[in-house]
Amino acid sequence: MKLFKPHKQHIVSIICLLFVILFVYAACTKLLDYEKFRVQVGQSPVLTSIGGWISWLVPGIELVIAFMFIIPRLRLLALYASLSLMVMFTAYIFIVLNYSSFVPCSCGGILEKMGWTEHLFFNIGFVFLAMIGILLLEKSTNHGTSSPIVISEVLPNDNIEVS
What we know:
membrane, single chain, Methylamine_util_MauE, mainly alpha
């Protein structure tokens, strides 16, 4: 972790920004083509009985978590929520791939181009990103409260003095 120390805040901010992009994109894709998403969730052998709830709950949770990243004091909680959600998504994909006779297509947008195995590895990558972010943020003394917006840590800051 000493390798990350000088860049800890930037690494955490980039991880947070990646989750914001992922969750906003995924939620908007689901909501913009809600009917398709609802049907696909309903076709899932694992989620059939709760498909109606899941089709609203998942994009809602994704948007709430994305918003939490913008509030500095909620970043650690947002990383834990992201980790939980990504572990659930990953477990769902693993179960469908290994124990289901029918594998529905339930992704939209860019992610629709990925197969289930690629999607599994994509999710595992985000699980690791969440864990890295949690470890780095928990070890910091300010718990991510130094900047008001995630993007401000990623974009260059021009210090312009007004006289």
